[in-house]
Amino acid sequence: MKKMTLTLLMITVPLASIISPCSSAEPVERTDISIQQASQYSVSVSHAKREIALELSRQYTRVLPVLQSNINQYNLAMDADLVFRSSGSDTKTLRQSELAIREAKGLYTHTKPKINTVRSGSQAPSLVQFRLADASMLSDWQQGESPLFAFEPDGDDKQWANIEAYDVEGNIHLLDVYQLPQRPVIVIGLDKQQAMREGLAVMRDTLALSTHSASQIKRAKHQVSAFTAADQLISTTVIKQISVKDDEEPWISGKAEIYGIVTGVNPSRDEPVLDIIEMPYLDYSGTEYYPNQIVIHWERYRWAAADLVLMEHDDGTNYKDLATALVSIAERVLQQYPDPEVQGYAIIATITNEILNALPDAWFTNNDDFVDVYYTLQEGETYTNHYGAGGNARAFFAPLVIQSR
């Protein structure tokens, strides 16, 4: 069963820089805005992992004591940089490969500098992990059986012919995609929760920069403050219960991360609103969860209606390009309607469908995967055992009114 961690970070257009704090990093500069281009970098990520796998095979004898001291039945993964540094191993290949991964995914390469510090800032957190593929391998590995070092291939996991892995001699082994190997396997992968957290931070900054100048943000902030002072009640919708169907997944993929994209239109201006929702509770598919999580703040949406798209994070998406592309699509749709009030909330579904239509085929495979979509969630409505349009997600949505003071 595929483990999934669904994590709440609100990213709002046009008020993203007000609702969420600014990111602590400098983005990788990229001028492309095509949503197709936002997901075509998995080859670079896979290549970087291959280089790390080979380096781990070369340094395995040195790092083994550190790995065995930290990997156990409760924790099957360890930060790769910490492994190398703690064992006194050379980190050059690891650092170069991780930089390539960050650039491929549009993540920050350095933390944002504080006042009176150098512009480049300090080194960004480590993303790469070494993970024992399954707890059943732990005993044999701890007793001295030599492992293989594997990583996810490129492209659609339904089209994978095999899993590429290396032994301590650097020899290649081709493993079955769905049958868990009998021999211990250490997977070179990303800390997906960290990668998604950083990716959504990039999206937050990019959405803010793509939609408003500093003066517009200042004016919008004043409007929000006035609204809060005048209105004591905040109308929201919460997810009371949610589950996602269990699908067969390759053993090497490990846990997943799911996030939501809430789409709608600004109540005071003809501009799109895109909220990105992170959810750190939905651990496994096929299991019911009861988060009681706020997903929609209705003061941000015209016509008291919004859509919710559920997406699953994987390794191949460039987040900076993705955010730019999402804004571009939503704005293009709105420009087609000189008077949005004539069409009303039907425009929201058009925005959502245009986003879904623009998703590359790879996003339905092994990049940021489409999970399901909820059309026309409305303020004040309760939805019990409500299936998404694709029938993959089932949720219980309920209204919640909060006193602002």
TrEMBL record:
Keyword Signal: yes
Top-level taxonomic group: Bacteria
Signal peptide extent: 1-25
Keyword Signal recorded: yes
This protein's UniProt keywords: Signal
Entry-linked InterPro entries: DUF3103
One Pfam match: DUF3103
Protein name: DUF3103 family protein
